[in-house]
Specification:
This protein has helices spanning 2-19, 161-169, and strands spanning 23-27, 32-34, 45-49, 54-56, 60-67, 72-80, 88-93, 98-102, 112-119, 125-135, 139-150. By secondary structure, the chain is of the alpha+beta class. The radius of gyration is 22 Å and the shape is elongated. The relative contact order is 0.17.
Length: 170
């Protein structure tokens, strides 16, 4: 219970901090169009966060409904928008059912890289799992995977007795 409360508190804090960061919407020509960034930028816009060098193409992924006992994975891509290279120092999942994999190679300015996040759908029900990325000394970002695990049948499909009787008649 304490762990869930801590995770929710951390999420709320990170959302409050990110809501206060100064965002600018910049078109392809580099002209600032507005001081308020929309949550989903158009194809012609890029969201630029002041001082951030790790820009994720997406910060959340919904697996939808997945069967219990079947691990799933998703790849999060990011780009180094800074002027200096950096590497990911750590990618930490909130629990043992979530496994992130990343490369420790240096990401040059303008270069893209990936973080693959796996989830072992062992328990049925909805889930939300944050994954914390630490990079460039002390900078931190979070990505989120979510979805719903449905229970798979314990036994195989029942035998079709009608087909069995047809086979006996022939």
């Amino acid at each position: 219970m304490k762990r869930i409360f801590t995770i929710i508190s951390c999420l709320a804090f990170s959302l409050a901090v990110s809501a206060q960061s100064s965002n600018k919407v910049v078109n392809k020509k580099g002209i600032v169009k507005s001081e308020v960034a929309s949550s989903v930028p158009s194809v012609e816009q890029t969201v630029v966060n002041a001082g951030e060098i790790l820009n994720l193409k997406e910060s959340e992924f919904n697996f939808g409904k997945i069967p219990q006992g079947k691990p799933v994975t998703h790849t999060f891509e990011f780009i180094n928008t800074g002027k200096t290279p950096f590497s990911l120092e750590n990618v930490q999942a909130s629990c043992g059912c979530t496994t992130p994999e990343w490369t420790k190679n240096t990401v040059a300015p303008g270069e893209t890289s990936k973080i693959e996040v796996g989830f072992n759908a062992a328990t049925e029900g909805p889930f939300e799992k944050p994954v914390t990325i630490t990079y460039n000394g002390n900078q931190v970002k979070q990505i989120l995977i979510k979805g719903e695990v449905f229970k798979t049948p314990v036994t195989p499909a029942p035998e079709n007795l009608a087909i069995k009787s047809l086979k006996n008649e022939q």
